[in-house]
Fold these 3 entries.
Entry 1:
Amino acid sequence: MASGVVTSSGEAWTWGEGKAGKLGHGTGLNVSQAQRVEALVGRAAVREISMGDSHTLFVDSYGSVWGCGENKEGQL
C-alpha cells in the first residue's frame, strides 16, 4: 500500500510500498515517512495524484501528466 498528498504549494509527497519506483523517489525502496518527490520540484506544480499498483501519475496545474513506476503494460 502507498499514499500520496499534494501540498497547497503544489508539492507532491509520497510514502509506503515503493515497488517498481512508483513513489517517484528514484528507487524501489519502501518509505515509512512522507518524502517530497524531488524530481517534480521546480518543474511542475502538482494538483492531483493517482496511484496504481506499480505506478503513480501526477497532474500539474497545466493539465500535464507526469508518471513514475512500471510501464510494462503501457500505463505510463
Note: The two ends are 19 Å apart (CA to CA).
Entry 2:
Amino acid sequence: MYKFLLLFCTFVWVNGQNIPLLGNLQKILDQKGTANIFITLADGPEKFLSGFLDQTFSTHAQQVESLTRGLQDHANKTQQVVINLLNQFTAVTGENITIQQYWITNQIYVKGANKILILMLQTLGSVIGFIKEEIYAVFGPMEPKLAELKDDEYTWGVQKIDAPGAWALQDSLRTPNPVVVGAIDSGVRYTHSELVENFIGGDYGWYDPVGKTPLPNDDNGHGTHTMATIVGKNVGVAPDAKWMACKGCQTDECAQSDVLSCGQFLMCPTKPDGTEPDCSKVPRIINNSWGNDGGGDATYKTMIIAWRSAGIIPIFSVGNSGPWCRTATSPGDYDNVISVGSSNSKNELSQFSSKGPAGGLLLIGGSVKPDLSAPGENTLSAWNTGDHDYRRISGTSMAAPHVTGVVALMFSAKSNMTYDEVKKNLIDGTTQDGKRPLIICEPMLFKFRYPNVEFGYGILNAKNSFLKTIS
C-alpha cells in the first residue's frame, strides 16, 4: 500500500494541477489532518439549466421530471472519473471516508478527506476546486416566551396582513387549488394539533438526510414554529394548504451536505429512506428561515437556479444582523429569491432585521434587499415540546413564513403562476406605511421612500396580493 502511495504521490507532483483550496480548507487540513469537502467539477449544471428554460411542457410534473432526469444524467456522466478515483483510494488505503453525490449542483461530498486524497484529486482535469463544507444556521429566535392559544387571541401578524380578508376571497372561489408547501428547517412536530391534519403523509412528505427517520420530528422547535405560521389550523396564514418538510438543520446548525440533500428531496421527493422518487410530489413553495452570518456567499446559488427551473418559489429570511446597513445574509441576498425582513405591530422595522443593499451600493449595481417585510416580532406559533404547546418568538425566521403562507393562498387561486408573477403580486400588494428607521441606508436625496433597503418594497398584505392574483 505504501509503495503505491509513494508512486502515486510522485505522479501527483509531476502532473497535479494548481487547484486552490478555498476558504480556510488548507488551515483545517494542517490542524486536523482531514476535512469534510465538496469537490467542484469543471462541467457544472449551469449550461444545462440555462438551456432547459427554453423548453415547454404540458404539465408541471413533466417539467420537474425532465429537469431532474437531465441533472441526474449529467451528474452521472461527469462525476464517474472522480468516483472511480475515490473508490480506488478507499480500496487501497482502507481510509474511512463517506462519499455523497449531488446532482442538483453536480458536486461530490467527501467526509474525512485527507491531504493525500486531495493531491490525487488534483490530477483530474475534471476537477476545478475544493471547498470545506459550509455550516449555516437557523436564524435563532429572539426572546422566546411561553404562550397559550386563546379563542380570542389569534396571532397579531395574521390579522395585520389581513389574511382573513384573503380567506374570504378564497372562499368565494368555486374550486380552490390544493397547494403543498415545503420547508428546510429543524424538522416539524407533525402530531401538533396545528399541523397533524394537513401533513401530506409520511411516504413523500418527510426526509431526514442523517437519521432517515420515518416520520417528521423536531429537536429544536424552530421548524415547528415556522411551519405552523404558514399552515397552522389556528395560527397559520394558509390553514387549508398542505405541508411537507426536510430536516436540513439537525439542531440549530444546517450542514451543507444536509441542506443540499433537502434541496434534492424537495425538488423530487422520495420516501423517507431516500428510495422511489416521485417528482410529481414537488411543492410549489419552499420556506427557508436559515442562512449564514453575512452576505455574498454563492454556495446555494446553483441549487436555487434548479429550484427556479422546476417552478418552485424560494422564500428566504433576510437575517437577524440589523440594525446596521449591508447586513443581508446569504441566500437571502440572492437576486433569484424572495427575501423577507421583519416588521412589528406598529409598522416599525424590527431592530434585528438585516438590511441591504446586496451586492454593492445601489448606484453601482447593488440590489434592493429585502424584497418586502412582514410581521416577525412576538409571533405566536406551535412549539415542539407538546401537541398543544406554543411559543412567542421573534426574528426574520418568523417573517418569511407569513410571506410563504400568502404565496400559498395566491397559488390556491392561480396554480400556474411564474416566479415573476408571484413576486410582482406580492410587491404590488404591499403597503408603504412602514415608519422611517433610525438608521437608514443610502437615502435618495436624503428622503426615505419606497423601495428601500430596510423594508424593501413595503409591508406584506395578504388581501391585496390575493386580489392582484385573481384580477
Note: The chain has 13 helices and 19 strands.
Entry 3:
Amino acid sequence: FALMWSLGAILELEDRVKYQAFLEEKGGLNLPKCSDTTTIFEYYVTEDGEWAHWDSKVVEYIYPQESIPRYDSILVPNVDNTCTEFLLDTIAKQGKGVLLIGESGTAKTVIIKAYCGKYDPDLHLYKAMNFSSATTPGLFQSAIESYVDKRMGSTNGPPA
C-alpha cells in the first residue's frame, strides 16, 4: 500500500498498470488479486491487514431534503474521491502538508473544502484561494497578507 501511494500516486493510469506489473514481477509482495479491469490502486488495506476494494468504503449519497445545496459543494461519493479523502485524512492527521494534483474537474477543490469544513473553527482556520496563470507571487503575497494581522516587524498572525 505504501509503495502504491508513495511512488505510484503521481502516475497516469497507463503508467500505473506498468508499475503494477513491475511490482508483481519483483515478487515477494502481498498484493491484492486483481481482475483484468482493476489495478492494485483500487484496493486498500483494512484494519485487520486484508486487501479490500475501495467501493466497500463508498457511502451512499443522500440528497439533503431540508435545503438545496450549492452545486459546487455537492460531492457524490465514488471510488476515486473516497480514496482521495482517505489519503488526505491519513496524511493530514500526521500534521503534514497535502498537495492534490490532477486535471481540471477532478473534484480537488470540493474534496479539500469538504475536508476543511469538518474542522473545529475554534482550533483551525482555512481560506480557499484560486490560482491561475495570471497569479503572480506579489498577488499571492497580497492575498495572504489581507487575511492575517500584522504584528511586529515582519511578523504576521491569525486574526485576533
Note: The radius of gyration is 20 Å.
